[in-house]
Amino acid sequence: MASTSSTPPNQCKKWDFFISFRGDDTRYGIISHLSKSLKDKQIKTFTNEELHKGEEISPELSKIIRESSVSIVIFSENYADSPWCLDELVEILKCKEESGQIVLPVFYKVDPTDVQKFTGNFEKAFAIAMHGEKGSSQKVDNWKHALMEVSNLSGWDLQNMKYESKLVEEIVNDVLEKFSYMPKNDYSYDHNLIGIESHVEKVEWLSNDKQVMGIWEMGGTGKTTVAQELFRRNKNKFDGHCFVENVREKMTKQSSKSVRDKIICQLLRDKNLHVDTSDLDVVTRRRLQSIKVFIIFDDVDDFNHLKNLAGERDLYCEGSRIIVTSRDRQVLEYVCSKDGMYEVDNLIHSQGLELFSLHAFKQNLPREGYMELSEKATTYAGFNPLALKVLGSHLFNMGIEEWKSEMKKIERRIS
Predict the structure, then answer these.
(1) Which residues contact 133 (CB under 8 A, 6 or more apart)?
(2) Quick check: helix, strand or coil at residue 250?
(3) How far apart are CA 31 and CA 49, in angstroms?
(4) How far apart are the first and last CA of the chain?
(5) In what order do the strands lie in the sheet containing 341-343?
(6) Do 147 and 20 touch, CB atoms closer than 8 A?
(7) 121, 81 Cβ separation under 8 angstroms
(8) Is the dihedral of CA 345, 346, 351, 355 positive or negative?
(9) Is-contact 353 366, C-beta < 8 A?
(10) Where are the beta strands (DSSP E) in 125-263?
(11) CA within 20 to 30 Å of 90's CA: 57, 176, 239, 409, which one?
(12) Of the candidates 366, 368, 303, which has an alpha carbon nearest to the alpha carbon of residue 329?
């Protein structure tokens, strides 16, 4: 067997989903549809046919399983006749037990009871694998344990649905929801985002029944950061998504049509799309109206820019979401209702001190002897996230006398 060490819970995950399946049973059915659906959602998915198979799973494949956030196991009639699949299953269960990996079983043209109790055709398939392992009773015991544990987890059964396409749809929707609320241990998450959780949750709640939502602040309190985290968490719930950054700056360098066309190409995932006129053609409009999209326009200072880039509301189907961030509340009032605007406030005292400390000391609290000076610094920064980051980074690695000198300079400036 390959190495059995597991990925620590806080280690970065390279893959979103790993799919374990018996190719002969599922390759041209559920696997082709499920893989495409997940990849269309821009979910990094690894299937167990993407590496050359030998007698046992390779260290490389074991590493891929450990680097995945979620494992989907497709139990089919002949799944258990493959030692390769069974070794994968043992590794998957280890990851679940040791690092909290989410494991989701799918029963594809096989009765869940046959898998759980080793009966019917599934028992016959397992007997084939056991026959090749006569001298390794421990391995067979590991296989049996993994089969029983994973098959008893909550999952999906094709027998309960009329169409395979419906099964795939339910799997994709459910795993995307689970994925969006998983612990944020991946490389794209900034663990220094102090206080971000409450902002994101409030915006998500406010935008639940609104097509257009606005986020505003006077500057430096983190509207873009909130928008970026909203996008990271929610983009895969939509058919198409696009984060349009620095709209105010972008529109001084590019034409509205050029920026708009890039947005449409990204939403439709069509690099070859060409829109020859300022007005969208009928086909392009219909394509946009047929999908649920998520767009964030960041740092908008002119309503006309937004109108030129986003177009009319009827261009997007029901369930689509557009979020606009701005320093100008009046810009948002053109497109949002009063209850559709959210103001990003400064941090509370404890959050401000923590954010400052992360940049000044590379830890969550001030070092010994620096508490009083740190309290002053966070107050001088007005608990504004940007000011706290800048001031903390400026003071990093300075001695206490240098800190006192810097504090006196700030006092003179603000007095």
Answers:
(1) 83, 139, 140
(2) helix
(3) 11
(4) 70
(5) 240-244, 293-297, 321-326, 212-216, 341-343
(6) no
(7) no
(8) positive
(9) yes
(10) 156-157, 212-216, 240-244
(11) 176
(12) 303
Residue 8, pLDDT above cutoff 60: no
Q: What is the pLDDT of residues 347-369, one digit of tens each?
A: 888 888 888 999 999 988 999 99
Place of tokens 């459910």: 174
Contact 36, 210 (CB under 8 A): no
Q: What are the catalytic residues?
A: 88
- Which tokens is 94 given? 């280890």
DSSP letter assigned to residue 182: S
Give the domain-ending residue among 126, 154, 180: 180
CB atoms within 10 A of CB 225: 19
CA angle at 320 for the pair 14 and 18, rounded to the nearest 5°: 20
Q: Domain ends where: 343, 359, 382?
A: 343
Q: Residue 6 and residue 63: Cα distance in Å, rounded?
A: 8
Is there a single domain that holds both residue 360 and residue 320?
no
Strands lying side by side in the sheet with 68-75: 45-47, 15-20, 68-75, 102-107, 156-157
Query: Both tokens of residue 118?
Result: 């080793």
Is residue 137's pLDDT more than 50? yes
Q: Which residue has the tokens 């169409």?
A: 163
Asked if 29 and 130 sit in the same domain, the reply is yes
> Into how many domains does the chain fold?
3
Q: How crowded is residue 354: how many other Cβ atoms within 10 Å of its Cβ?
A: 19
Residues 228 and 318 in one domain: yes
Q: Which residue do the tokens 């001031």 mark?
A: 391
∠ CA 229-234-239 to the nearest 5 degrees?
Answer: 140
Residues in the chain: 415
- On the 0-12 / 13-18 / 19+ scale of CB atoms within 10 A, 296 is buried
pLDDT at 288 over 90: no
Please choose, from the candidates 141, 61, 72, 142, the residue with its C-alpha nearest in 3D space to the C-alpha of residue 101.
Answer: 72
Token pair for 340: 């559709």
Across 175-255, the runs of DSSP E, i.e. the strands, are: 212-216, 240-244
Its pTM stands at: 0.58
Say which amino acid occupies 38.
L
